[in-house]
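Sanity check

After download, print the first record. It should look like this:
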Amino acid sequence: MTKSPELATREFVPLVALLLSLVALSIDAMLPALPAIGRDLGATGANDAQFVITALFVGLGVGQAIFGPLSDRIGRRPAILLGLILFMAGCVVSLLAATFPLMIGGRILQGFGAAAPRIVTLAMVRDQYGGRRMARIVSFALAVFILVPTVAPALGQGLQALGSWRTIFAAFLAIAAVALAWFAARQPETLSPDLQRPLRARDLGRAVLEVLRIRAALGATLAIGFVFAPFIAYLSSAQQIFQEAYRTGTMFPFWFGVLSLAIGAASLLNGRLVMRYGMARLTVAAAIGMTLVSGAGWALATAWDGLPPFGWFLAALVAVFLALGLLFGNLNALAMEPLGHIAGLGAAVVASLSMLLSVPLGAWVGQAFDGAVSMQMAAFTGFGAATLVAVLWARERPADEDHG
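Expected structure tokens:
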């Protein structure tokens, strides 16, 4: 039965939020368990447990390059369903892992599978919405799914206390099963049959060239990569920063959640602000704010020998994460706006290129953790400035802001 547009929209937003939240859940619920995983599975280096986080991003980057074009060939529904199944398979591998390399392999498979709901969902949004309405839908969905990090570490900590870190992966399986059932039962196909295209390597190459050729798309893609690099570093080392450097103990999930709420609040606010000020104007303001605030935080950390008072550090991160909340939704919308004619391929290229940039940079920053937060704040400063440069370069065509 065909649903009315109003009913579809009301149901579509929470469904999108659930699908997108699988990535956040797979990252944030694991954070309290990283020391135990490293210890139980024989990780040797002090920062090796970070690879449990970065491995998922590796799979995500590869998967996005595949599932985007695949969704243009077989449709959005089959691509997402396949990805959910692969994600669940990766959960089983990690659940049963007896060695650290097997755990990393399972995490890569999880990321690969999660790439389908992550990237194809954005194409599904682009199939139905455009311009500022698209940015508004994405922002509201991001605001809902960003609530996951506010509870995910506490959920992981609780599940670990009830059983072990393996219990967390069992919970992932159950949540993915709910998403699979809901999506299969309720979400219709959004790709028009006349827009389906063959799955050919040369089409992917042309899509890459298209993104590289369109200044607005390329600039936004670079900006996404720059802004995500320090965020990946933060996610990889958050447990060490809060529990080892600042010794917050069992309060780690609470403080992590506070920062996540800052991103969620900004994303929700962005859904309203974008209708008044436009995507590009907000991204410039947010990039400037991120650079200035994190620069002040870097100076503060340097003055305190790498470890400023916890309250000052937290205040700086709250301000930085408010800027991140404005950047995440708008940058993705800006990158996709001129790519409506190749939505699936375009989403894949944007996500993969930005991930190709952000993962190695973020892993490098994370692996440099030495018990201080100076490097993290320096990364937010430097990459914030790079984001600003990329956004300003992309803005050379003002019409990009006004489409839709």
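If your output differs, re-run the checksum step. Summary of this record's structure: Confidence is low (pLDDT under 50) at residues 1-7, 398-404.
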